[in-house]
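Example 3.2
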Amino acid sequence: MFRMDSVTSIIYVNPRWFHITGHNALAGGPSASGALQFRYKNGTWAQLELKHVTEFGPDVTLVGVVTDVTALKSLEILHIETVEQRAVDAETHRRHIEQFIDIASHEIRNPLSAVIQNAECLERSLRVITSAVNHLRTGGTLDQASIDNISSEMRENIDAVEAILICAAHQRRIADVSKLNMGLLTVNRTSFDVEAKLREVSRMFEADCNRKGLTLRVVLDESVATLGARWVQADPSRLAQCLQNFTLNAIKFTSAPGSITLWVGATSAPPPLIPSAMRVGQVVLEDTTDYVSPVWITCAVEDTGRGLTTEEREALFERFSQARPRTDQRVLKRQLTSHHFTVTLTSNGLEALEALQDADDGKAEPIDIVLMDIAMPVMDGQEAVRELRKREKAGMIKTHYNVICVTGNARREQVDEYLSEGFEDIERLAGRNGNPEQQGRGVKDSYFPAM
């Protein structure tokens, strides 16, 4: 509490005033009346209340009360910060859900589109082969060119069936792939028999390996028994998922009479990092001070397949990319060719730009329309179409190319974004109506009505 004279000089204070204000002597006070909150240099928040009084004589006009409201202010600030943080967390959660849906949508539509496209190709091819067989049954003959064509169709049909099987297997992993991309995947540690887990995974793929003429085996390095590491503390489900993914890829890229080995070994010290190994991040070892004798387990899937090229290795861990992207491209080419299109394939956005530049310069066959994926290695579709429009505007490319965006992203704001960046149209994976045959006719009718 304090008192002020008519010229607003402080003439009295009680002891608590010095504690709140941090002053050690009287000083001039505020000239305003009413109530306000402020903070002193010592960090104390105070509330000041002033009142005109006459009980203490004509020279005293104001009586003030300074109340320490630091605790109240701290709670108020904490409340504001909490509300703001909740808003930030809610927005982050919304973005995570949105991104999760985008990733899951893309991961669903990609294999689904491939299944539909391959099935359509199989149906068309089987009709051709059935017609040829019926022709033979009625006493007709086939020339060598027709026989070669049917043989080529059968080889492509085998690829189509394998692609369908791979896409079907991929559907089981969509949720975990999406969570992994968002950092939402949980790990639940428990004790389990590592050999039993490897053999369980091995049994899942025995039929696939037998059908393809591959040998599948499980090998335990002698270090597992030496270090007593058969039972481990880890997440058996996540380990199984990793091994399943690696084994599935090994089956995909290994030809008969090849072999696939599921291997496990143990070390008493952190295992050395193999320089040639491809990694998605740094290995972080948890604190082992609570363990009497910690043991590190290494699991691997080895195969006799051809391996990956340098370009495939670089694209292996890119989001939405595949190590063999030309498989799906061949399917799409097969469909478009059946509708009398001439098709040029490129592996990424940069190669697409180079192909369009060559066509514009007369160094290659003219290109009338471009189907461009959004998710591509090296340069994605958005960056590529922006660069294309930039070159067209600058006169570096004189032809205005019709570019159709091929994507699994279906939200309205995403479609608007793609159109604003220079795409003429959007073709969602699996199609607007899910029918690739009608999609092919739709492209032809929209851009080539005279065909």
